[in-house]
Amino acid sequence: MRERERRRLPIVPVIAPWVVILALCGCKPSATDPTTPGAETPPMDVSTVTVVATTIPRILDLPGRLASTRVAEVRAQVSGIIQQRTFEEGSLVGKGDVLFQIDPAIYRAELDARTAAVAKAEATRVQAQRQSERTETLVERQAASTAQNDIAVATLRQAEADVASTKAQLARARIDLDFATVRAPIAGRIGRALITEGALVGGTDATKLAVIQQIDPIFADFNASASDPGRLTERAAGKEATEVRLVRADGSSYPDAGRLLFTDVGVDPGTGQVSLRATFPNPKAALLPGTYVRVRVPQGMKADAVIVPAQAIQRSSAGEAQAYVVEAGKTALRPLRTGGLTDAGWIVEEGLKAGETVVVEGFQKIQPGMAVNPVAWTGGRTAAAPEPH
């Protein structure tokens, strides 16, 4: 028994060192473990474009609002009950089309009365004229006095005046009867009816029945800074034809080009801006009055323009433009001063120069000073290839 214990005792010191070595190896951190604080994270991929200088059309992009060429409020000019509405709301109407019918019975009766009054006045005039002729003959024969002749002449003139007065009243009665049929004063698109059949309208307060707007062509009213170059005043005066373009509220371009009409003669002292107006064809009524739009006025060509995609431009809390630029493999947030917006992106007036790399996509997960891996952006046209207007 004791001999067996002596034989086993030397095995213990041989096994113990190996256990310690294995325990130490298991506790040693791996250099390739990504959770280890000392491990390096690979740079994040970001989509970028390289800025190049190019020549583009110089365009003034100005906010404006559409307005009707002509607006006519259809009003009742005589009093009465509306018997009928003869138009469809929202439809196109022509000048002179019948829109409403006011009860004409009272105006027909008035017309008949005035017609009878004219006939009576004519009969009185004829009698006075014959009496004047007889009196004149008697005066020549010295059978009547001059005073009698004067009375006959005055009676004739009074009868003639009565005839003129009754004819004027007859004409007024015809006008009132005609006004009982309400017609369109201009051609255009009519809105909803503001009254219904059976409603009483008055001529003294000129009740408004509907509104007609002529929208083909349509006006675009907009403002420009008085310091903007481009000789807009001369162009609007007709010395130089100026073609303008329209951008709708959803960002789409209106296919038909417009024409600059005029610029106001004075500058608003409060805003330092001048009012302008352009006209656009609108045969399909795709443009509606009151809509906010943007009017693009060409101002020649701009050389060495720096353009970046619209996605690359961010706005600070103060509303200032800024973008991420990759310098030596790291990001830097650069403040910018932008100009107009083109089809290729924003024109950068200050803050960028040709040859610099701008982050277009992926900047939501980066911070200034972070190492990144620039990848060519393929999401759209680059700043090097703007399309001319």
TrEMBL record:
Location of this chain's protein in the cell: Cell envelope
Domain Multidrug resistance protein MdtA-like beta-barrel: from-to ranges: 217-298
Coiled coil: 118-176
One matching Pfam family: BSH_RND
SUPFAM superfamilies, alphabetized: HlyD-like secretion proteins
Domain Multidrug resistance protein MdtA-like alpha-helical hairpin positions: 113-179
UniProt key word Coiled coil: yes
Stretches assigned to the Multidrug resistance protein MdtA-like C-terminal permuted SH3 domain: 304-365
InterPro entries: MdtA-like_b-barrel, MdtA-like_BSH, MdtA-like_C, MdtA-like_HH, RND_pump_MFP
Source taxon at top rank: Bacteria
Domain Multidrug resistance protein MdtA-like barrel-sandwich hybrid: 70-213
Record carries keyword Coiled coil: yes
UniProt keyword list: Coiled coil
Sequence similarity: Belongs to the membrane fusion protein (MFP) (TC 8.A.1) family.
PANTHER family registered for this protein in UniProt: ACRA/E-RELATED COMPONENT OF DRUG EFFLUX TRANSPORTER, MULTIDRUG EFFLUX PUMP SUBUNIT ACRA-RELATED
The name this protein goes by in its record: Membrane fusion protein (Multidrug efflux system)
